[in-house]
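BUG: 3D viewer hangs when loading the predicted structure for this chain

Environment: internal workstation, default settings.
Expected: structure renders.
Actual: progress bar stalls at 90%.

Input used:
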Amino acid sequence: MEALCMAGMFLYLSFEDIRKKTIPVIPMMFWGIAGVIMHLYYGRLELISMVSGMLPGLVAYILSIVSREKIGKGDAILLIVTGVYMGFWANIMMLWTGLIIAAIAGVMMLVFFKKSRGYELPFVPFLFAGFLLVMLSNGGMPT
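Structure tokens produced before the viewer hung:
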């Protein structure tokens, strides 16, 4: 159930990030609340796992403020929400995998499509790919 909820969230937010270069915060908040409710109902993650899972997103949010939004606040909030669903280590693995895929895509855009270094890639689709790879490597919803 949680994996389906996250996949739907990622699909919607990926289209929005590609189309509008922005991530709507209100729907993410609803997904975050739904994640907390699901965990309370199903008892898959403990409260400490949900809170620690949010840490990478909180760090990204602080970095967004310090860097004057070189890292988008929407991306940081998304990492907070995914942390609620996945816990700390799975969220870190998803972020790391997404960053590697984004770096490869960025190099390809520079080399093959002659984009400038300032070209901005939407990050949510790469996080979605990272989520899918982490799910596949864990044989299901990561914990």
